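Z., the sequence and structure:
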Amino acid sequence: MAKSFSGFGRAQLARFLDPLGRYLVRAGVSPNAVTLLGTLGVIAGCVFLVARGYLLSGLAVVTVSACTDMVDGAMARVKGVTNRFGAFLDSTMDRVADGAIFGALAYWAATTGQPRAAAAALLCLVLAQVVSYAKARAEGLGADCSVGLAERPERLVLIGIGTLLGGLEVPYALEAVLWLLAVLSAITVVQRVLHVRAQLVREGSHR
């Protein structure tokens, strides 16, 4: 279900992003430059806004910056080429962005007397990296690992909703979303481990 949700959302966004990608390609902009610029934007929004408690403005900056994750993909579609280094860079910068987002939320919560929310944010940070690593390691072994309740698009949507509610000062909303996301991420890790194990067992590669 998560995969279909993500695929549907990306298909709809592609209708709007492809013209932008076409314009940037004509202007001579590199997809890798867009990836790096977007990551820097996410880091800046997290460090200077989210971590200081400006949740709504921070959310706006991070959201706009995170959209570059789809813009560089649109540029690749327009160019009709697949850049292996570009894919590697994109995945690496996604991990950096995820760390910045959850790290900033953890810092903000810890410095505003919300230890439970800080703990949840740190747990989300760790689990987000494990979810992504499980997929990368599985693909390195030749296994498919595109399963799970909380893939990256779903995680970003949930944390965006939580940050919005937190910025609107809805009591305990952000903390609740963080714990929900932590649970969903943990389930996703288990799903991926079991899914890959089943594949490797069928292939006779289980040890």
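The chain has eight helices and no strands. The CA atoms of residues 30 and 119 lie 38 Å apart.

Let me know what you think.
H.
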